[in-house]
Specification:
Strand 6 (96-99) and strand 7 form a beta hairpin. Among the domains are: 11-106, Arc Repressor Mutant, subunit A (Orthogonal Bundle), CATH 1.10.10; 123-258, ABC-type transport auxiliary lipoprotein component (Rossmann fold, 3-Layer(aba) Sandwich), CATH 3.40.50.10610; 448-578, Serine Threonine Protein Phosphatase 5, Tetratricopeptide repeat. The longest helix is centred in the middle third of the chain and has 18 residues, at 323-340. The chain has 578 residues and is an alpha+beta fold. It is built from 25 helices and 13 strands. The strands form three sheets. Strands 8, 9, 10, 11, 12 and 13 form a six-stranded mixed beta sheet that branches. A four-stranded antiparallel beta sheet has the order 1-2-3-4, with helices on one face. A three-stranded antiparallel beta sheet has the order 5-7-6. The protein has helices at residues 37-47, 55-62, 71-86, 139-153, 164-167, 177-184, 228-242, 249-255, 263-276, 281-297, 302-318, 323-340, 345-357, 362-375, 380-392, 396-409, 414-426, 430-443, 448-460, 464-472, 478-490, 494-505, 512-523, 527-540, 560-569, and strands at residues 11-13, 16-19, 24-27, 30-32, 53-54, 96-99, 103-106, 123-126, 130-131, 160-161, 188-197, 200-209, 214-224.
């Protein structure tokens, strides 16, 4: 293999050095017995440090079409020999990282002269800025600054930015940039700190290239709270420049686009986001209150309208309040957001959810989700929304494909992993479903929706004790008890399931608990009871009624009343595959 003319005569990394022209690898000056394809692979990786060398590129260069050798076996053997020579490990790589199903990249520090032009870095994670005030009530600001920078840079199509929902797993001063980069498969990491004293702000930021373990940029800002937008724009512009990204005119406009001119309204918005992420009734209530305060200051704040729409949607889907009222407010807020800013992906997604869960306008919902993805194609959450739409339509193979995109974009999103696991379950791929649901709980042990799905799957597999143990670790709230009844019913424990169900049915409200209980009665062969509950939820217009094509209600699929209910909702007819 002839090396590029721009490659230096010796490439040094750690205690190793490679002579590209002689094809010789040395360790502490001693020649290592390694030749052929392993050396050629190493040279390809060293020519592009930190960049992905795809499996296709390796095959084209080293295993051409006229070579009658099994490529997969040949590549694996060559990589094993190369790693053994470098004392490297695929699980905890020092030099060569495996990118599953994609290829490999060199992640170690590379010394020596490099005369070839470095490529743009195409992946970034922005960690929540550490709150140095010591006041937990000020945590919202550090997380909010990071989220705003993420939102701005996510508009650059050639840059993959890790969503904020995942970055919050790494908040705190102890976060290690190299470990974070390895976990999230990114090249660059931005860390920061913020200290607020009254109206004064001190913000520091550092951009790190984890491939070379070097600082690309760092700065410290002493400003007033009123200058917060200027600081965020400066940081975003510095990042795009240091990552050597070629920005279009549209990219530059998006980076400097301000959602509001009011720092005070912006603070209320950040506080609202902070409390919503807690996903507690109190968090939802406080989020709505902060949204109202932000809109009092700036009624044209489109992002706040979209956030309010999202909160009302959650309340309507799960019945936290009367669904008709919640969805009417969600639609009003989404339309107001779009009236202000037609290019706001969050608003299109919110309107799509209203059309899906309340108005049952399937084509309209899909159109809104796809418009949102046109604006923000790298959003894992938007791919989750579209995956859920496919699931509600009974198109489960497409649900899986869309959820896989969401997971690729955000590999530590418990919601994305849960959606993929649910899709696998609907496709009768139980082993893969269990693997993903377990992974969702590993990512976020407090994500009890994953526990609910996994417990139901365990019961179906006859692993009843594991199902009960899993649910016992979830919060003792009505929805947990409803899933406990569902697991008992699925596991054949009729009397216990009915005892829990009847206790819950003494409560007057019909919300998502009622939806789960209808599935309990269906599994126990009590068709009339199940359909009576579903008819009540239909009249209430509970958002979860659109989930009827999912597997929990499969025992009812042969019922004429159930088919008539599907017809009135307008859901496609899905064959019983049990």
């Amino acid at each position: 293999m002839k090396p590029s003319s721009s490659v230096p005569s010796t490439l040094r990394f750690g205690v190793f050095e490679l002579d590209p022209r002689a094809g010789e690898l040395r360790k502490k000056g001693m020649k290592i017995r390694l030749q052929g394809q392993p050396v050629e692979i190493l040279l390809m990786l060293l020519e592009q440090p930190g960049e992905t060398v795809t499996r296709g590129e390796l095959q084209k260069k080293l295993w051409p079409a006229d070579t009658f050798v099994d490529f997969e076996q040949g590549l694996n053997n060559a990589m094993n020999r190369l790693r053994a020579a470098l004392d490297d490990n695929a699980e905890t790589p020092r030099f060569i990282e495996t990118l599953p199903r994609r290829g490999y990249r060199f992640v170690g520090p590379l010394q020596g002269r490099r005369t070839f032009r470095p490529k743009a870095m195409d992946s970034l994670v922005v960690l929540p800025f550490v709150n140095e005030s010591g006041d937990p009530d000020a945590d919202y600001l550090g997380q909010g600054i990071a989220e705003s920078i993420i939102n701005a840079l996510s508009q650059i199509r050639k840059l993959r930015v890790v969503p904020c929902a995942t970055t919050f797993h790494f908040r705190g001063p102890e976060a290690n940039p190299q470990a974070v980069a390895n976990a999230l498969n990114v090249r660059a990491v931005l860390t920061g700190r913020v200290l607020q004293r009254g109206e004064s702000l001190i913000i520091s930021a550092e951009l790190i290239d984890t491939a070379t373990e070097s600082q690309l940029w760092g700065a410290r800002y002493g400003r007033k709270m009123a200058d917060i937008f200027d600081v965020q724009e400066e940081i975003a512009n510095e990042i795009s420049g240091r990552l050597r990204l070629h920005l279009t005119r549209e990219d530059k406009e998006q980076i400097t686009k301000r959602p509001t001119q009011s720092p005070e309204a912006y603070q209320f918005y950040l506080r609202g986001c902070f409390h919503l992420r807690k996903w507690t009734p109190e968090g939802v209530r406080r989020c709505l209150e902060y949204c109202r305060q932000a809109l009092e200051i700036d009624p044209a704040y489109a992002l706040v309208q979209a956030l309010m729409s999202r909160v009302y949607l959650v309340m309507g889907v799960f019945g936290f309040t009367r669904p008709r009222d919640a969805f009417a407010r969600a639609k009003s807020a989404a339309l107001k957001a779009l009236e202000i800013d037609r290019a706001l992906a969050e608003a299109h997604a919110a309107l799509g959810c209203v059309l899906l869960y309340f108005e049952w306008d399937w084509p309209g919902a899909e159109e809104q989700f796809r418009q949102a993805l046109e604006i923000s194609p790298n959003s894992s959450q938007l791919h989750i929304e579209l995956a859920n739409w496919f699931g509600d339509m009974g198109r489960f193979d497409e649900m899986v494909a869309e959820a896989q995109i969401a997971v690729q974009l955000d590999p530590l999103s418990a919601n994305a992993i849960l959606t993929l696991g649910a899709g696998f379950y609907e496709c009768r791929r139980d082993a893969e479903a269990a693997e993903q649901l377990q992974k969702a709980l590993e990512v976020n042990p407090d994500f009890f929706w994953a526990a609910y799905f996994l417990a139901f799957l365990y019961s179906a597999q006859g692993r009843h004790e594991q199902a009960v143990s899993l649910l016992a670790s979830a919060p003792d709230i009505p929805i947990t008890r409803a899933y406990m009844a569902l697991s008992f019913a699925r596991g054949g424990h009729r009397e216990t399931a009915l005892e829990i169900a009847h206790e819950l049915e003494r409560q007057p409200r019909r919300d998502f608990v009622g939806y789960v209980l209808s599935a309990v009665h269906g599994l126990l062969g009590e068709e009339d009871e199940a359909l009576t509950i579903l008819e009540e939820l239909f009249e209430e217009r509970l958002g979860a009624i659109v989930f009827l094509n999912h597997g929990k209600h499969e025992p009812l699929r042969g019922s004429p009343r159930f088919q008539d209910l599907l017809r009135r909702i307008g859901l496609p007819q899905v064959a019983n595959t049990g």
